[in-house]
C-alpha cells in the first residue's frame, strides 16, 4: 500500500510539474510571438513608396509590398491574440491553484519560476535559500 501511495505522489508531482512547465513555455511562446509582431511593424517602416515621377518606377510594386506586409502583420496579430488568450486562461488557473497552497515559500517559488519566468538561482536569492534547499522546497511544493 505504501508503494502505491509513493507512486501516486510521484505521478501527481510529475503531472503538476509538466503542467506548470507548459504554462511557462506558453508564456515564452507569447513573448516570441509579440517580438515577431513588433519586428513586422518595424519592417513595414522599411516599405517605402516608390517615387512615381521617376521613369519606370510605378507605385504598383510598392503597393503590393505594403499589402503583403499588412497581411503578414494581420496574420501574426491573430496568432498572437489566440496564443495570448490561451496563456491568460492557463495562467489564471495556475494562479488559482498556487494561491491555494498553504506554504508561502513554496507558493512564491513556484509563482516566480512558472508564472514570472525567474531562474531558480534568482529565486534562491530572493527567498534566501541555498540552491539545494530550494530544490527540496520545490519537490515538497
Structural class determined from secondary elements:
mainly alpha
Order of helices and strands: HHHHH
Detail the poorly predicted runs.
none
- From the spread of the alpha carbons, the general shape counts as elongated
Radius of gyration (CA) equals: 24 Å
Proportion of strand residues: under 5%
With helices defined by DSSP (H or I, 4 residues minimum), what is the helix count? Answer: 5
Distance from first to last alpha carbon: 23 Å
Largest sheet: none
What fraction, in percent, of the residue positions are helical?
Answer: over 70%
The beta-strand count equals: 0
What is the mean pLDDT?
A: 86
Can you characterise this structure?
With 141 residues, the chain is mainly alpha-helical. It has five helices and no strands. Helix 1 (2-44) packs parallel to helix 3 (104-115), helix 2 (60-99) runs antiparallel to helix 3 (104-115) and helix 3 (104-115) packs antiparallel against helix 4. The mean pLDDT is 86.
Amino acid at each position: 500500500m505504501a508503494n502505491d501511495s509513493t507512486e501516486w505522489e510521484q505521478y501527481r508531482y510529475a503531472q503538476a510539474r509538466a503542467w506548470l512547465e507548459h504554462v511557462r513555455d506558453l508564456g515564452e511562446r507569447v513573448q516570441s510571438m509579440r517580438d515577431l509582431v513588433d519586428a513586422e511593424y518595424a519592417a513595414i517602416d522599411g516599405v517605402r513608396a516608390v517615387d512615381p515621377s521617376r521613369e519606370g518606377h510605378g507605385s504598383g510594386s510598392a503597393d503590393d509590398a505594403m499589402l503583403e506586409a499588412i497581411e503578414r502583420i494581420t496574420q501574426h496579430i491573430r496568432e498572437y491574440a489566440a496564443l495570448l488568450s490561451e496563456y491568460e486562461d492557463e495562467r489564471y488557473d495556475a494562479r488559482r491553484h498556487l494561491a491555494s497552497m498553504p506554504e508561502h515559500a513554496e507558493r512564491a517559488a513556484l509563482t516566480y519560476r512558472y508564472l514570472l519566468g525567474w531562474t531558480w538561482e534568482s529565486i534562491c536569492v530572493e527567498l534566501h535559500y541555498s540552491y539545494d534547499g530550494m530544490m527540496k522546497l520545490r519537490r515538497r511544493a
